[in-house]
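User: Here's a chain of 218 residues. Predict its fold as tokens.
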Amino acid sequence: MTGEALRLTGVQVRRKGRIVLSVPELVLARGEMLAVTGPNGSGKSTLLLASAGLLPLAAGSIRLFGASFHEGEAPACAHLRRRIAVVGQDPYLFRGTVERFVGYGLCCRAGTSGAGGRRAATLALLEELDIASLAHRKTTTLSGGERKLVALAAAVVTGAEMLLLDEHTANLDERKAGLVRGLVERLRAEGRTLLLAGHTARQDRVRELRLMDGRVLE
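Assistant: Prediction complete.
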């Protein structure tokens, strides 16, 4: 798999009259994994949300898979947004069972036909993350760590070409965090593009982009 997955050029995000993110250039190749690191308030989450087309840009442009994606008001082009999936620090889960929530995205995307195929794909991913026991639980009863795992499963099962994960091992014990890191490595091996945000890289063999006060350090 070759070519660019993501390109930011002269991107700035403004809040309350202040520039909170300034990225002169960032290029992420297809199949690459990039960790955006830095302390709290450094702009990591802002970078992920802007890259997903969910924040308005004060300046600059974003290209996604070689096509013009985002140049101003949010949200950006819906057609291209379907090719990516975002898991935030505190993900929102709609009401219903875990199995229904995780499988919902497959109803809107091609590639998995029939209820049987959707259920099999959903349950396989729940097993991989060791949360199959939650399948019939209501999403409103889950802990913060459980919500993070369920949201991650929902993002991955869609087959999205690029995943943007914010603090993907936060609120997890070491065993569950290890399962998540293993899943991320599997996705990388499959050729999916990954943009991760966190205080440290947390994954082996990953390119790192360091932010401080909304600006790129290295």
